[in-house]
């Protein structure tokens, strides 16, 4: 086959040189095969394969490394099966990506690859891998948030009936993936790992986010990154995440929502189930913007004042280990200005945390502060048992506290009881990432999510050498 391929390449145009079209199946080979192993841009060949076989066909990337030096848009596929047996490696040409990445519309973000269509599969068989050359981005970004032009690795757009299985991501440029304007999407048996080898964090390396999508299912994931593990953003309905393990992430949030006053966010029927969170800053939480627009916030963007609602959310069967803030609800996630933090009109209702067990890094098990303009009805704890790491090891520990504000039936008993113990009032400007125990927060609330230098050597942000910080590495 290889000799025939080389003969084919010698007479074909460069755009089609390494696509072998066998009827409705297109086999893609890397340009490096006839360039003495030197990396050559494979983007034109891959795009041509989708042009030839993207409708009622198959695109197969063999067990080689493919160099991706340009943006790709392979939407509009129909009855197409994609196989990735090797590695797709994105270039570290930062000026190119900053200038050419496709806008995803949401929050001024962009992507390197749009992928979508109807009745589509993408299989990696446990060995297909995306490599984003992320370290170049972590160094260039220098811990800043939401850099314009920094691309999401892979965006599913305008998809219906799409199944992705057995694919890995390493060293993502930004978010690993994004599901936008899609329906009936399943991503299963997914592995993601983005870590930094120096002092610059892997900021904004979410595992995935959903937006304007419904009927999306995430099964059997392992994620290590520097931000949300799986996040549900606005206008997402019937999203299920099951059997997910997250290392050193920001947990499993709904949000953020309520950023744009011209586009309300509605989120409903969300289930997170069978989740294991290890050394994460956050756990099972909800984050909404304040109700008054602010020009500058500490996530690098302006926003706030958006309406909508969040309802029918279940967090079930969570096992947490050394999580900074296990359970929380905030309606001032990026403002941290007490004068605007109680202005949200986005209604949060019918949220259940069930069978949540394990250890917290600090003495705060839960912080729930709903906006006084729209107090939260239907919030419930069922079998929630969280203790501090120190207490679990028999060491001296502060007593665990649960903080509440503006919950409907907060002090009810009997059938209306929330099951949420309220040991104190939750301030409206609580930081969404904790670096202190509750008595210290009472005297000095930290107003920035930047990790203080003295706090970096812990298992929430262990730096490049987890073992030296006394943190067990993930069992890869």
CATH architectural label: 3 Solenoid
CATH class: Mainly Beta
Q: In this structure, how is the largest beta sheet organized?
A: 19 strands, mixed
**What count of structural domains?**
1
- Overall strand count: 28
**Ends distance:** 35 Å
Structural class: mainly beta
Strand content: 35-45%
Classified in CATH, the superfamily is Single-stranded right-handed beta-helix, Pectin lyase-like
CATH topology: Pectate Lyase C-like
Shape: elongated
Number of helices: 6
Q: What value does the Rg take, in angstroms?
A: 23 Å
Quaternary structure annotation? single chain
Helix content: under 10%
Question: What's the SSE blueprint?
Answer:
Blueprint lengths: L1 H10 L7 E4 L2 E4 L14 H11 L1 E7 L3 E4 L3 E13 L2 E4 L3 H7 L1 E2 L6 E2 L1 E19 L2 H8 L9 E2 L1 E4 L2 E11 L6 E4 L2 E11 L14 E4 L1 E12 L5 E3 L3 E12 L4 E6 L7 E14 L3 E7 L19 E16 L1 E6 L16 E14 L3 E6 L9 E10 H4 L8 E5 L18 E2 L12 H6 L33
Parallel strand pairs: 2-3, 3-5, 4-6, 5-9, 6-9, 8-10, 9-11, 9-12, 11-13, 12-14, 13-15, 14-16, 15-17, 16-18, 18-20, 19-21, 20-22, 21-23, 22-24, 23-25, 24-26, 25-27, 27-28
Antiparallel strand pairs: 1-2, 7-8
């Amino acid at each position: 086959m290889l000799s025939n391929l080389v003969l084919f390449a010698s007479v074909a145009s460069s755009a089609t040189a390494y696509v072998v079209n066998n009827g409705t199946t297109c086999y893609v080979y890397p340009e490096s095969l006839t360039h003495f192993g030197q990396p050559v841009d494979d983007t034109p060949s891959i795009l041509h394969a989708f042009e030839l076989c993207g409708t009622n066909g198959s695109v197969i990337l063999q067990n080689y490394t493919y160099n991706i030096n340009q943006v790709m848009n392979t939407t509009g596929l129909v009855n197409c099966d994609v196989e990735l047996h090797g590695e797709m490696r994105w270039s570290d040409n930062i000026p190119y990506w900053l200038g050419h990445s496709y806008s995803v519309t949401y929050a001024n973000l962009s992507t390197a690859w749009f992928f979508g269509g109807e009745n589509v599969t993408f299989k990696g068989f446990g060995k297909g891998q995306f490599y984003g050359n992320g370290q170049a981005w972590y160094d260039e970004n220098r811990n800043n948030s939401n850099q314009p032009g920094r691309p999401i690795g892979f965006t599913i757009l305008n998809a219906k009936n799409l199944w992705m299985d057995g694919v890995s991501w390493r060293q993502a440029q930004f978010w690993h993936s994004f599901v936008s304007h899609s329906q009936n999407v399943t991503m299963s048996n997914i592995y993601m790992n983005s870590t930094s080898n120096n002092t610059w964090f892997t900021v904004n390396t979410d595992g995935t986010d959903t937006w304007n999508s419904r009927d999306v299912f995430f099964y059997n994931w392992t994620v290590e990154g520097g931000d949300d593990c799986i996040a549900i953003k606005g206008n997402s309905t019937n999203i299920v995440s099951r059997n997910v393990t997250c290392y050193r992430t920001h947990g499993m949030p709904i949000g953020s929502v309520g950023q744009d006053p011209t586009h309300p966010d509605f989120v409903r029927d969300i289930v997170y189930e069978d989740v294991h969170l290890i050394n994460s800053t956050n756990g099972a939480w909800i984050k909404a913007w304040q109700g008054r627009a602010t020009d500058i916030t500490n996530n690098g963007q302006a926003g706030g004042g958006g309406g909508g609602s969040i309802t029918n959310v279940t967090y079930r069967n969570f096992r947490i280990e050394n999580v900074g803030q296990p359970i929380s609800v905030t309606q001032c996630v990026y403002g941290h200005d007490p004068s605007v933090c109680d202005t949200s009109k986005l209604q949060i209702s019918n949220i259940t945390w069930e069978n949540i067990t394990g250890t917290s890094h600090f003495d705060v098990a839960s912080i729930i502060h709903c906006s006084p303009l729209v107090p939260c009805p239907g919030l419930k704890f069922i079998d929630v048992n969280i203790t501090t790491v120190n207490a679990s090891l028999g060491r001296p520990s502060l007593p665990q506290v649960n903080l509440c504000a503006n919950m409907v039936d907060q002090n009810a008993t009997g059938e209306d009881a929330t099951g949420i113990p309220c040991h104190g009032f939750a301030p409206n400007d609580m930081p969404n990432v904790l670096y202190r125990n509750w008595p210290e927060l009472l005297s000095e609330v930290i107003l920035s999510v930047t990790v203080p230098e003295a706090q970096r050597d812990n298992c929430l942000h262990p730096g490049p050498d987890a073992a030296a910080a006394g943190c067990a590495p993930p069992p890869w």
